[in-house]
Amino acid sequence: MCGIVGYVGKRKDVVPVIIEGLRRLEYRGYDSAGIAIGGLSDGLELRRAPGKLRRLEEVIRERPLEGTYGIGHTRWATHGRPTEENAHPHRDCTGRIVVVHNGIVENYLALKHELTAKGHKFVTETDTEIIAHLIEQELHEAKDAGNALALDEAVRRAIRRLAGAFAIGVISADEPDTIVAARNGPPAIVGLGDGENFMASDVPGILHHTRDLYFLEDGDMAVLKPEGVRLMDFAGKPVERKVQRIQWDPIQAEKGGYKHFMLKEIFEQGRSIRETTLSRISLDSAKVFLSEMQITEEEFRSATKINIAACGTSWHAAIAGKFMIERLARVPVEVDYASEYRYRDPIADPHALGLLISQSGETADTLAAQREMMAKGSKTVAICNVVGAALAREAQGTIYTHAGPEIGVASTKAFTAQLVAVFLFALHLAQVRGSVTEDESRHLLEELIALPGKVRDVLRSCDAECERLARVYSSVTDFLFLGRGIHYPMALEGALKLKEISYIHAEGYPAGEMKHGPNALIDEKLPVVVVATKDPKDAGSCLRYEKTLSNIQEVTARSGKVIAVAVHGDEDIAQVADEVIYVPAAPELLLPVLDVLPLQLLAYHIAVRRGCDVDQPRNLAKSVTVE
């Protein structure tokens, strides 16, 4: 959740490196910011401020600072209010040790009582301050015993006493030009340079300076100095990690002329879908190729069940995936919220496969679900957008969504790339199990190749229409979204997008459940968005469509206002809906990618008209890396 950036070296001015890096991590969500710098005097200088980064920059302009090493932080409050006092970085009693931290120290109260009894004075409400004092205590006890303790050893001893999840960066005035980083849960990366090195909580924070990264794994520590980086585990033993070279163009993380990152990312979906598809399919053989798999075809053939776990928007992709996998591969699928999975003693075994979906690949609950599946003998496949992320490292197979960096908190292009990745997984599984013919496969792959063009057409044709609808409906207090079958999770996603960024209460519901409660909500003030697309060549799709038309008539009979999403050429829908947004025809299992586009645009334009912070909605973070 929190943003962390660190720099050590003499090739750049450290303050701009850290501030610009934090700005590139603003999408993670935050409510205060701070920086600590050392290297040009005997001590560390701190500047902190509540609110946005511009407040911190104002403080720095009033009281400039410079140095050769430092760490910065944007905080998303967990312990303590978002005040200057509680903003990171945090000092120890001497002021010569400074810590930034992402995560939660679960045993901080017990440690605080212990340290207070030893004379430590605490000045904040945070759990992070405990870490600085623990490191100070380790150095103090070693000195009393006549031993000189290096900073990394003191950090190692301190963090072994922490319960919970953490990614930290530590600097000390007594060990200049050194940053110690450690990870146990939330992500931490180390960037490699020439005579300089970097640390961050996510790739965009340092991508303008280096493309060569170490992704620290749980239990890893790193000691950064200008001349190099040492990696070790929490016991102090050296570890080796592969250097990952990031191919993202840094310009991809800029707005590129769009008013908001979210709008830019909505319009990038044609490209991200194409990139996720390319190199994985062959029309000649009508095959799907998933190369990064340590799961054999025999294991795919013999799987008796697929367990899917995900959170938030990724959970909606998982529900759509259930329809895809069961329809194509004819194997039972169970979908769980990752945050609930391990708390119900789930059934997983060597005959089941686990599928984990996460944009960041670092979502704490999804990682915990993966480990639960693996502990019970299941092999797992990860779908994520970040090469080298924890979810991918621990999985036996990975399908990367090549969506590029997604900065907006509300996921758009990563979601549709996930839908495509799940579809590829489902079709590959079906081919291995022999449940689809070569002709059926080729038809679906031809349609998949045509999908990016259709996406671009929808975005061009629907943007102005959604902006017009936003003018009409931006002042309402509630929305209802309805869908049937594989379109139901798109209704859930549409409702989530609207509530995330516009703060309007919105609810997604299966259209067939209207009589079991939601009908009570309908009146002339309630807009109802109905996903009513169909594949005319699919009998089941047509049957669901007819049922959905009946649901629309239930709404209009009660004076509700209906906004329908339908396929081009559908004249029946215009007779019963107040507004219709049209998308191109596609096979039933690919229609969700087109369904969701106008829902994204509608949410965006409503949020803009309401004056909301579209890219950084209140109380939300991009990557939920702690429970």
TrEMBL record:
One of its GO terms (molecular function) is glutamine-fructose-6-phosphate transaminase (isomerizing) activity. Its EC number is 2.6.1.16. Catalyzes the first step in hexosamine metabolism, converting fructose-6P into glucosamine-6P using glutamine as a nitrogen source. The gene is glmS. This is Glutamine--fructose-6-phosphate aminotransferase [isomerizing]. The keyword Iron does not apply. InterPro entries: GATase_2_dom (IPR017932), GFAT (IPR005855), GFAT_N (IPR047084), GlmS/AgaS_SIS (IPR035466), GlmS/FrlB_SIS (IPR035490), Ntn_hydrolases_N (IPR029055), SIS_dom (IPR001347), SIS_dom_sf (IPR046348). It comes from the Bacteria. Its main location: cytoplasm. Residues 2-227 form the Glutamine amidotransferase type-2 domain. It catalyses: D-fructose 6-phosphate + L-glutamine = D-glucosamine 6-phosphate + L-glutamate. Residues 296-435, 469-617 form the SIS domain. It is found in: Cytoplasm.
